Amino acid sequence: MRITQGTFSYLPDLTDDQIRAQIQYCIDHDWPISIEYTDDPHPRNVYWDMFGLPMFDLKDPAAIMQVMAECRVTFPNHYIRVSGFDRSHGRATTALQFIVNRPAYEPGFYLDRQETSDRQIRYTIRSYAVDRPLGHRYEEA
Amino acid sequence: MGEPDQTLSGQIDLDAAYREAKIDQLLDELNRDLVGLIPVKTRIREIAALLLIGRLRQQAGLDTGRPSLHMSFTGNPGTGKTTVALRMAKILHHLGYVRKGHLVVATRDDLVGQYVGHTAPKTKEILKKSMGGVLFIDEAYYLYRPENERDYGQEAIEMLLQAMENQRDDFVVILAGYRDRMDTFFQANPGFHSRVAHHLDFPDYSLDELMEIAELMVTQHRYSFDDHSRQAFLEYLEHRLGQPHFSNARSVRNALDRIKLRQANRLVRQGGSISLSELTRIDDADVRASRVFKGGNEQTGDGEGDEDD
User: Fold this and answer.
1) Chain A residues with CB inside 8 Å of B133's CB?
2) Is the confidence metric ipTM above 0.85 for this complex?
3) A70 CB near a chain B CB, below 8 Å?
4) Residue-wise DSSP of B270-287
5) Do B100 and A57 touch (CB under 8 A)?
6) CA A84 – CA A93 distance, rounded (Å)
7) Hey, are the CB atoms on B100 and A60 less than 8 Å from each other?
8) What percent of chain B has pLDDT over 90?
């Protein structure tokens, strides 16, 4: 199951040229870019790890593409995303964020039903991938 | 790359392309703001022509390998190396050679680390910062310290060389430094010498050019020489030229700064009411109070060439 989230969730994965163009857009708007990774695919997981520091002082997408390439080499089987942060007063939030790398195989989620009192049912979704510990979840078996 | 097409037989309007790139405007600016430096200006014009033709060839579908534009600027202190580097970044940007046209100035401190493993990230950081622009390495020969074979400078040099080769599309490196020391640097690092396509030598300024520079600075700062003080300053330069640690335009600027100081002092001591023009006028005495006229040598605290008098 292909996980989607962020700005271009409805599109197929961006190519490197498209990513570069998006990064250029961020730089043009003075949005510092950061690169994050995780292997916990749950949609409510907001705690992604930073790869390096936010890149405040880089003026050219080539440099950021280079960092992204490094991140892909280091974490080939993780989700990696690029975010542009708009720090302007009154907004101060992530302005644009998209996934640039995903594991080769995404097993998806299963729906867990919990019977509680009065025959009520509580639902939860759980990824098949999270059985294994952090950092080993998408390794080849 | 378009396919090689009709244009091989067609006509190309060179003048229009030339105007469009605003090369003239840039070169005029260069001529106006920088005195002398004829060989440097000629070289810049040549490079601009090369890039323009390269771009036209590309438009016509003729493949031109991207020319390597790494440069080395050699010359004595105060001959305008940094100023030209800044201009160069702008020119390259206008010609579409670099994407952003910003200048990142780095010295040994910014590139070389203090302990094992510190150099690579530092150098990488600077390289990343300069992408899309120009990396200006001032006093590049300090990177290489032959007397200490475990010096981390070598590591920075290797990374630089690699980036200069592999990321030619992303940035331009300009190495700068004094002539003789750069020569030894290049001898010890032949890899650098062959990767730097343009070696520009900045000549010392002649007396006339120095005077012209002084006039330019004085006008820029809204001061003015009168006939006597102009003559006095010319004599000052003549004296100063023969003394050690003369650093061309920088010395002129320092001398003018001190003259302004003396002018201010003179006016304050004089007191009373003065005319507005007195505020801008540099007096003969302001210049002649310099120690240079008293036959005294420049007192130099350090050997770096910035003198006082």
Assistant:
1) 59-60
2) no
3) no
4) H-S---HHHHHEEPHHHH
5) no
6) 9
7) yes
8) 11
